[in-house]
Design goal:
The chain has 431 residues and is of the alpha+beta class. 31% of the residues lie in helices and 23% in strands. It is globular, with a radius of gyration of 30 Å.
């Protein structure tokens, strides 16, 4: 008796998904609730578990296939272990036909998808040459690309070949001497050497669904909003001194490190309460004012940028904020964020400073009306009471939708965040 493996119900507004990788191959034993295959939607990777114990009998949709909810992915045959002999051979043949056989499964090498195997073959690599970062050591496209980049960086520069000495000119005959020699050909400007295709490699890979969705949303934000950005500078010294003074006690009391992001979330939540238009969104011809602060925190993962939401951030303590951000970061790295974790949000904070950015213009996350950009903190000369002093300064950027937020409101909102962070005691004491 066979049990069907089907695509689970997809989140609302998600029409289809892509099969990313099978973790079992036909003929292999599987246990109930063991993860069989990963399916990627626009935002998250869904893990499809085995519905029953048995042997993976067939794979209907291999890696890279586009599937919809309730579509058949494969079947499981009742049994406790993979069969041998002809049954195993037939299963292996079926896996090859479906394009879903894992390279190296029999040889002990890490498993790879057909697309990754093709990329390895094109670059003359084997699975054993590349360290896999995926589940159970599985090799991803990004692993191969990173290996190629590191190999290219480590490769020694080619030694220039010395030019051959010119051959001696033959003695001129009387007739040749009477004929004027043609003018010499000009050397290529800058000594450029023609290059063939082998010296200028390039490759073409399809966008992941997440990257395609990011591109779609960013283009939509650019074309459908009246986006402007205002800037300010923040003296980080008060927050840094407060954190330095209490970080050890904070970690001992709450079992979590005290970072800077929690201060920014608290300041943003307080400013959002004071400026409801920044915490609003446009819905058709209506403006929706939100009576809560669901703050999205942009988190970088190996699949791209994701924005999980801190629900009711205005009611969260610094410790609660730090713990939730830490949980989201871990889930993003492991690909375990759910659609619910990233749905909604009334305001977003993104921190380009962790990558060294000095200043940037963050792009809106529709339908939100504003996004706050943090940047690297650098020591800079500033004037205080007529004296030039050195202070740790961060540039802040607030991008906003001018259709709903006036310039004066945006500037004052950002100035409020600056004032709250430059006097954090008042913010924490709610005075």
């Amino acid at each position: 008796m066979s049990t069907e493996i089907k695509v689970p119900a997809l989140p609302e507004s998600v029409a289809d998904a892509t099969v990313v990788a099978w973790h079992k191959q036909p003929g292999e034993a599987v246990a109930r609730d063991e993860v069989l295959v990963d399916i990627e939607t626009d935002k998250v990777v869904l893990e499809v578990p085995a519905p029953a114990d048995g042997v993976l009998e067939s794979i209907a949709e291999g890696d890279g296939a586009t599937v919809v909810a309730e579509q058949l992915l494969g079947t499981i045959a009742a049994g406790a272990a993979a069969e041998t002999g002809a049954a195993t051979t037939a299963a292996a043949d079926a896996a090859t036909d479906d394009g879903a056989a894992g390279a190296g499964a029999a040889s002990g090498e890490p498993q790879t998808s057909p697309a990754v195997r093709k990329l390895l073959e094109e670059n003359g690599l084997s699975a054993a040459d590349v360290a896999g970062s995926g589940k159970n050591g599985r090799i991803t496209r990004e692993d191969v690309q990173a290996h190629l980049a590191s190999a290219s960086a480590a490769a020694p520069a080619p030694t220039p070949t010395p030019a051959a000495a010119p051959a001696p000119a033959p003695a001129a005959t009387p007739a040749a001497a009477a004929t004027p020699a043609p003018p010499p050909m000009a050397a290529p400007t800058g000594g450029a050497i023609p290059l063939d295709d082998e010296q200028r490699p390039q490759k073409r890979v399809p966008m992941t669904r997440l990257r395609a969705r990011i591109a779609e949303r960013l283009l939509h934000a650019k074309n459908s909003t009246a986006m402007l950005t205002t800037f300010n500078e923040l003296n980080m010294q008060p927050v840094m001194e407060l954190r330095k003074r209490y970080k050890d006690q904070f970690e001992k009391s709450h079992d979590v490190r005290l970072g800077f992001m929690s201060f920014f979330v608290k300041a943003a939540a307080e400013a959002l309460k004071r400026f409801p238009e920044v915490n609003a969104s446009i819905d058709g011809s209506d403006i929706v004012y939100h009576g809560f602060c669901d703050v999205g925190i942009a988190v970088s993962s190996n699949r791209g940028l994701v924005v999980p939401i801190l629900r009711n951030a205005e009611n969260m303590s610094l410790a609660q904020i730090e713990k939730q951000i830490g949980n989201y970061a871990a889930q993003a790295r492991e690909g375990r964020l759910s659609i619910e974790d990233m749905t909604g949000g009334t305001f977003t904070i993104t921190n380009g400073g962790v990558f060294g950015s000095m200043l940037s213009t963050p792009i809106l996350n529709p339908p939100q009306s504003a996004i706050l950009g943090m940047h690297a903190t650098k020591e800079r000369p500033v004037v205080e009471d007529g004296q030039i002093v050195i202070r740790p300064v961060m540039y802040l950027a607030l991008s906003y939708d001018h259709r709903i937020v006036d310039g004066s409101g945006a500037v004052t909102f950002l100035k409020t965040i600056k004032e709250l962070l430059e006097d954090p005691a008042r913010m924490l004491l709610d005075i």
